[in-house]
Amino acid sequence: MDRLSIILTLMTGAVITGGLVILFFTFGWYGWLPIAIGAVAGIVLSWPAGYVISRRIKRTDPQWDESRVERVESTVPKPDAPEV
């Protein structure tokens, strides 16, 4: 379970949605449709973006040891389980 990616998903969703809505408004496209497109794009792209950012943070962190993490056996890991 990548807990960091869950936190980053919330932030990246807001950034993607807000960025697209601002971009649409800048080009003069006002209305509910650009907001809906931005929201859908934010929902669809937020988890992959959060996961990629999480992996990059962990890859560049010298204190992170990938070898000490055991394989997660269930879909919902224990709250006190190590980070994957």
TrEMBL record:
<keyword id="KW-0472">Membrane</keyword>
<feature type="transmembrane region" description="Helical">
    <location>
        <begin position="7"/>
        <end position="27"/>
    </location>
</feature>
<feature type="compositionally biased region" description="Basic and acidic residues">
    <location>
        <begin position="60"/>
        <end position="73"/>
    </location>
</feature>
<feature type="transmembrane region" description="Helical">
    <location>
        <begin position="33"/>
        <end position="53"/>
    </location>
</feature>
<keyword id="KW-0812">Transmembrane</keyword>
<feature type="region of interest" description="Disordered">
    <location>
        <begin position="60"/>
        <end position="84"/>
    </location>
</feature>
<protein>
    <submittedName>
        <fullName>Uncharacterized protein</fullName>
    </submittedName>
</protein>
<keyword id="KW-1133">Transmembrane helix</keyword>
